[in-house]
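Researcher: Please translate sequence to structure tokens.
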Amino acid sequence: MKNRLPREFIFSLFSLILSVIVVHAVYVTLVRPKATFILQQQNEAARQDPNFVPERSLYVLVKDYEQEACFVLLLWALGMLTYKALAAMRERRLLDADLLHVPEGMRILPQDTRDYARQVEQLPAGERALLLPRALLSALNRFGATQNVQDVSTAAHGVCEAEAERLESEMSMLRYIAWAIPAIGFIGTVRGIGDALASAHKAVSGDISGVTEGLGVAFNSTLIALLLSILLMFVLHQLQQAQEKLVLDTGTYLDEKLIRHMQA
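Model: Translation complete:
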């Protein structure tokens, strides 16, 4: 677990840099040129036909800087969610394996704990640091020391509870991003309304293009930010549910594969 935290931090930093590069490249090469071209066409059509109603274009909806920042945060969050989901899948694969090889009807005595602990310690270092091997070793060591099954259950489930708290604390950054995306959308709303008010004097003379452009920025940034926030919160809750189920299933594994076989 000590090696996993720096690796996760490096992955998070790398995914942030990659998200900024990819999203900004798409905006510079595709989104903003396309949006500018569409707006020019719509303005030309509006000058020729006073009754012209422009169609809503996706490029125009996402062209502003606030939407770009929201997409950067979304891509960054999805990268971290993918990392955590893969880690949870790796943990869950161990639940399908019989790490102790205890036959049905066999009783584990305190003097046998060293032999069973060696089976877990023979796992590769990367797997030995996962939740299930740590809980098994904690339970076996406690049983060998105290010869009390109740103490074993408390120690094993204590490891699971500590893991649940750790997973919960590591979700704080993702929750912050889920909050920051709509906040950035509201910043775009304030900026757009400010631009519209700054152009209000032109509307008196009949030129409402500045007002409509400012209001477009305001509403588009809020719309895109809220949609992205809904998507991110859905994925976030799915991951949290998978992590909680993993911890519960690990506790069940300990009860069925280890604790019920113990006899003081």
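Researcher: Any highlights?
Model: The chain has a mean pLDDT of 86.
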